Amino acid sequence: MITQKFLDELSFNVIGACIEVHRTIGRGLLENVYHECLKEELTYRKINFLTEMNVPLIYRNKELNTNLKCDLFVENCLVVELKATSELNPIYEAQLMTYMKLLKAPKGILINFNCFNIFKEGQKTFVNEYFKLLPKF
Fold it and tell me: What is the pTM assigned to this prediction?
């Protein structure tokens, strides 16, 4: 059963994996390099995920072919979007929140590997109405 506590612990572990990738290879590389390294780190930590998963878009009761893809969908409840950019643009937050809504995911993390410190400046965590409905423990 997914709880707020489970999601908080999962988020902590995923951010820890991102910190390890960043510590190991540093900043200044392309997003796809971090994506590949993070997939390896999550596998090493035995954290289940789907990568480049199609995000379904239902409009007027019809699923449309939009080719939306989230970077990582972790444990079927946490959306992780990766960036390697000079600054986090609000459109990235909007994208993450939309993916969370479409996937009915209660939590999402936006990671920017182009920073000095992932924990302090390279990550933002978001919750939505699904998170608030989950039991705390």
Answer: 0.95
